[in-house]
Amino acid sequence: MGRLFLVELEGRCYRCRFCDTPLALADDVISRTFNCRQGRAYLFSNVVNVTVGMKEERVMLSGTHTVEDVFCCRCGQILGWTYVASHDKSQKYKEGKFVLERWRIAEEVTEELSLNGGHHASSDPDNS
Ligand SMILES: [Zn+2]
Fold it and tell me: Which residues form the Yippee domain (predicted)?
């Protein structure tokens, strides 16, 4: 423990609004029209650099789910939650997915960083 090993993400990603830690790829967004009690949230298939809290049963708009809260691994703010299990068959697709509240994350729009063509040295085979 002690040192944080943060996963870097390649491409457009969402970051923690408070500490700028990369959390999820824009490509991993399943739904941007997700609503929770605090407002708009995004549903992700995968997130990184988070820690999860205790499992608990929670009654939500879409029924009762077993969820775990999700926290930023660097600054510790709560970001949302993850679905561990759903009691309703129609909600099963959410299992293993992550909900991040929109206002807690920041969308980063990175420009395509074009490698200066021709400048990256192609390593010569070295058989010595
Ligand atoms: Zn953070």
Answer: 12-109
